[in-house]
Write a structure and sequence with these properties.
249 residues; alpha/beta; Rossmann fold; seven-stranded mixed sheet; two-stranded antiparallel sheet; globular; binds S-adenosylmethionine
Length: 249
């Protein structure tokens, strides 16, 4: 059985980051990992640094091409065009299956979670990180105070004013308030994730939730001292880690 120790870290690559995954005891090396929705390869590159063999999957050919060019030449990295449903291959193929900042793009995100479990070997780990938490839909007074102060302290980006997309987006939002300039499918109002249902799906698919935590996400431009002053007082993001039971299919 493969065992991991996973803990929240304040900083990865000089930036506070939701989860820093640390390998403690491994009975099987190398670890085979699947990064679901790898985007530009942020999580993939951390996993490669840990010595994992990583399959990086994404719906977007452009992102996969980017990962292929930047990380694909590194040993242990392979890119896979995603069908949107997780992992098209056989059951129990990976020791570690993770998704970082992806679920809110996926209409059937519970289906994706089940597929992640299917792709995981018994005794392996499923990790879902960087998704909005209760604190972002029902913000506490401390969180609102933090956001207000952060906004006031962040310098205004004047280059936004000459970006034509700013005006196109505003115009489109008049007709569709849920329009996102990002172009991705944000499928829920406020990118809502029903965490109790994610937990239930994991449990029903043979996993046990071993660790979860709300945390305050560091965003580019936040003054660090302000962030430090509030990070223990409020949260807007969630991470959840589950272990697949040894006997699970
Ligand atoms: C915000 S980015 C994620 C960033 C990335 N995980 C990282 O570590 O920086 C969301 C990514 O999810 C991908 N995506 C959305 N739905 C997906 C799905 N059903 N299956 C795989 N990838 C998906 C998008 O193409 C996009 O690259």
């Amino acid at each position: 059985m493969v065992r991991f120790s996973i803990h929240a870290s304040r900083r990865v690559s000089g930036r506070p980051f939701g989860t820093h995954l640390l390998l403690s005891k491994l009975a099987r090396i190398p670890v085979r990992a699947l990064d679901v929705g790898c985007g530009s390869g942020n999580l993939t590159s951390h996993l490669l640094e840990l010595g994992f063999h990583v399959t990086s999957a994404d719906l977007s050919p452009a992102f996969l091409c980017l990962v292929e060019n930047v990380l694909g030449r590194r040993a242990g990295c392979e890119c896979l065009p995603s069908t949107g449903k997780g992992w098209p291959g056989p059951d129990a193929s990976f020791d570690f299956v993770a998704t970082y900042f992806v679920l809110h793009h996926v209409p059937d995100y519970l289906g994706l979670v089940s597929e992640m479990v299917r792709a995981t070997k018994p005794g392996g780990i499923v990790c879902v990180d960087h998704e909005a938490s209760e604190g972002s839909w029902n913000p506490s007074p401390e969180y609102l105070k933090f956001k207000r102060q952060a906004e006031q302290a962040m310098p205004f980006d004047w280059s936004k004013l000459v970006d034509p997309m700013r005006y196109v987006s505003r115009f489109r939002k008049l007709f569709n308030p849920r329009y996102q300039a990002e172009g991705n499918i944000h499928v829920f109002p406020d990118d809502y994730i029903a965490w109790p249902r994610v937990r239930q799906t994991l449990q029903e698919s043979g996993c046990e939730v071993v660790w979860e935590q709300d945390y305050l996400l560091f965003q580019r431009g936040y003054p660090e001292d302000l962030f430090e002053a509030y990070r223990e007082q409020c949260a807007d993001t969630h991470v959840l880690v589950a272990g697949k039971r040894a006997g699970a299919a």
